[in-house]
Structure formats: structure tokens, C-alpha cells
From TrEMBL:
UniProt feature, compositional bias: Basic and acidic residues: 208-221
Organism whose genome encodes this protein: Caulobacter flavus
Region annotated Disordered, chain positions: 177-237
Superkingdom assignment: Bacteria
InterPro entries (alphabetical): TrcR (IPR010421)
Entries under Pfam families matching the protein: TrcR
Protein name, UniProt field: DUF1013 domain-containing protein
Length: 237
């Protein structure tokens, strides 16, 4: 594949200003010969202004002269400074501060427990960890397995709430599509808003209910207990 900057505009210029064959231009610009023929016939790239590959540093005059003198010769492009500047920069890997790296196993455990639909690759990308570490946490072979507990990655400060919501939604939609292809109907969807996913275990829920029942005041504690009824008290007065 050609790395020529603005290939169609370059092809337009070569068609208009050189005696190169369609095959030579197509090879240099990374186009199909029929597409170059369409440019020459005015059917393709009609409104595109030609771009001089010599002027923008992608082709030397010597290469062009050599190709025009030999129809079998294929021109070699030069590395263009402009093309290098326009190349999309690769996204840097997620950086996790050293102080928070020890929290990643807890976040991994949270994903494994609450969102099994999220793939290892997605977990690895959002937390900046490795698939090997995820497997160790899942299989409880991690060196610190005894101290790992599921904790929401937003609470740990490893990801943002919106980013987490988007990831969970994307993973759930993909799982739903895969299940639909397999004819599986999910009775209890796993997707919930991230704010609701940090639910308690059965033991924790039971303990919280017990504490709540103990803390809830009873009617007699508020109004006091009395043996008679209201009418009796009125009679006494």
C-alpha cells in the first residue's frame, strides 16, 4: 500500500503533467489502473486539484525522468516531511500512577465478579494491565490473591465514570448480539448502570438488613406504651 500523501490529487497532477503510463501512476499512488484511466477521462476526481509530488518532496525529478524514459520502471517515493506530520499519532498506552498500580487487581476482580461480559482485552486496555495478570486474579494464583477484593475501578480512581459506563454498555451489547446469534435469550441481563453494579453479597446484604432492623425505632419507643385506650383517659379527666 502506497504512503503517498493525497494519492488522487497526486495522480491528477501526474496525468496532466507527465507522459507516465496509467500503470506507473497507479503503482506510485496506490490506485487501480482503471481508476487512473477514469481520472484521465474526467470521470474520477473531477473536482480535485492536482498536487505536485516533486514540490511536496515525495518524488525527485530524477525518478520522474527515469520513469518517463522507461514504461516498465516503477518510481520510488521519497519520505515526505509533510506526510510524516500528517500521520496519525499512536495512542500512548494508559499510564497508571505507581501509587495506584497495587489497586488494579481489586479492579480486575470487580470486573470478573460484576461484569463477566467484559472481555480480558477490554479490561486490559481500560486498566492498563496484562491478560496474564487478569488470569492470575481469576484463577486466584496471583501472588497477593489472599488480599484481593472486588472494588469499583471508579472508586479507585483508575477510570472515569463515563468511560466505565461506555465500556460496560458496549460489552453488554456485543454479548446480546452473540447470544442472539446462538439463540440464547437472557432472562436477567447483566448490564446495569455502573452506579448500581457495586451491589452487596448475600452475607453483606443480610448483615445490613440486621443493622437496619436494630436501628429502626419501634412505635412504642416513639409514642410510649399505655395499657388503656384514649376513651378511658378522657373519662378519667
Amino acid at each position: 500500500m502506497s504512503d503517498i500523501l493525497m494519492p488522487k490529487a497526486t495522480a491528477v497532477w501526474l496525468v496532466d503533467n507527465t507522459s507516465l503510463s496509467f500503470e506507473q501512476i497507479a503503482d506510485f499512488c496506490g490506485l487501480h489502473p482503471l481508476e487512473v484511466r477514469g481520472i484521465a477521462d474526467g470521470e474520477v476526481a473531477r473536482d480535485i486539484r492536482g498536487a505536485d509530488p516533486i514540490g511536496n518532496g515525495q518524488l525527485t525529478r530524477e525518478e520522474l525522468d527515469k520513469a518517463q524514459g522507461n514504461p516498465n520502471y516503477r518510481m520510488k517515493a521519497q519520505v515526505s516531511r509533510h506526510a510524516e506530520l500528517l500521520k496519525p499519532a499512536k495512542k500512548a498506552p494508559r499510564y497508571t500512577p505507581v501509587s495506584r498500580r497495587q489497586d488494579r487487581p481489586d479492579a480486575i476482580a470487580w470486573f470478573i465478579r460484576h461484569h463477566p461480559e467484559v472481555t480480558d482485552a477490554q479490561i486490559s486496555k481500560i486498566l492498563g494491565t496484562t491478560k496474564a495478570t487478569i488470569e492470575q486474579v481469576r484463577n486466584r494464583t496471583h501472588w497477593n490473591a489472599a488480599n484481593i477484593k472486588p472494588v469499583d475501578p471508579v472508586t479507585l480512581g483508575l477510570v472515569g465514570q463515563l468511560e466505565l459506563d461506555a465500556l460496560v454498555k458496549k460489552a453488554a451489547e456485543k454479548k446480546a448480539k452473540d447470544d442472539a446469534k446462538k439463540g440464547i435469550v437472557a432472562e436477567d441481563p447483566t448490564l446495569r448502570p455502573a452506579t448500581e453494579t457495586a451491589y452487596l453479597t448475600e452475607e453483606e446484604q443480610e448483615e445490613r438488613d440486621i443493622r437496619a432492623s436494630r436501628a429502626e425505632p419501634k412505635a412504642e419507643d416513639v409514642f410510649g406504651s399505655f395499657s388503656g385506650n384514649v376513651d378511658d383517659e378522657d373519662d378519667e379527666d
